[in-house]
């Protein structure tokens, strides 16, 4: 038989840093490029298009370095391609040239 999936709500596309790194990474991969997994940084929505496993650990949602490595429940995810609301997709390196994300800062 055929089954229909419900439309995803915005709350389902938000990244939950409290989950294991693999689930966060799979969430990003499953929603890229549309509708896209996202988080908030200083009140601005940032869509994550690509990621990989990061090194280190810490409190979930904490930036572990200056390269967009974000701590999850059991490890970390390094964000490699992001998109600011209303802008073009860009690499994490290009994003960090215009936006400062210091180690120890918290993303929601």
In percent, how much strand structure appears in the residues? 25-35%
- Helicity range: 10-25%
Report Rg.
14 Å
Low confidence ranges: none
Number of helices: 3
User: Total number of β-strand segments?
Assistant: 5
Mean pLDDT: 94
- Quickly give the structural class: alpha+beta
Describe the sheet with the most strands.
5 strands, antiparallel
Shape assignment:
globular
Series of H and E elements? HHEEEEEH
Instruction: State the end-to-end CA separation.
Output: 40 Å
Features:
single chain, 108 residues, alpha+beta, five-stranded antiparallel β-sheet, globular
Can you offer a commentary on this structure?
There is one protein chain. The protein is of the alpha+beta class and 108 residues long. 20% of the residues lie in helices and 30% in strands. Strands 1, 2, 3, 4 and 5 form a 5-stranded antiparallel sheet that branches. The chain is globular, with a radius of gyration of 14 Å. The model has no long low-confidence stretch (mean pLDDT 94).
Concise overview:
20% of the residues lie in helices and 30% in strands. It has helices spanning 10-13, 21-31, 92-98, and strands at 37-41, 44-54, 69-72, 75-84, 90-91.
Task: Give a topology summary.
Blueprint lengths: L9 H4 L7 H11 L5 E5 L2 E11 L14 E4 L2 E10 L5 E2 H7 L10
Antiparallel strand pairs: 1-2, 2-4, 3-4, 4-5
């Amino acid at each position: 038989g055929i089954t229909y999936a419900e439309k995803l709500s915005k709350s389902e596309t938000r990244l939950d840093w409290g989950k294991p790194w693999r689930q966060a990474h799979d969430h990003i991969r499953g929603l890229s490029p549309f509708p896209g997994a996202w988080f908030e940084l200083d009140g601005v929505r940032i869509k994550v298009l690509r990621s990989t496993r990061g090194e280190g650990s810490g409190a979930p949602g904490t930036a572990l370095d200056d390269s967009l490595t974000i701590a999850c429940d059991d490890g970390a995810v390094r964000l490699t391609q992001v998109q600011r609301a209303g802008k073009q997709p860009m690499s994490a390196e290009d994003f960090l040239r215009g936006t400062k994300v210091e180690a120890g800062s918290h993303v929601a």
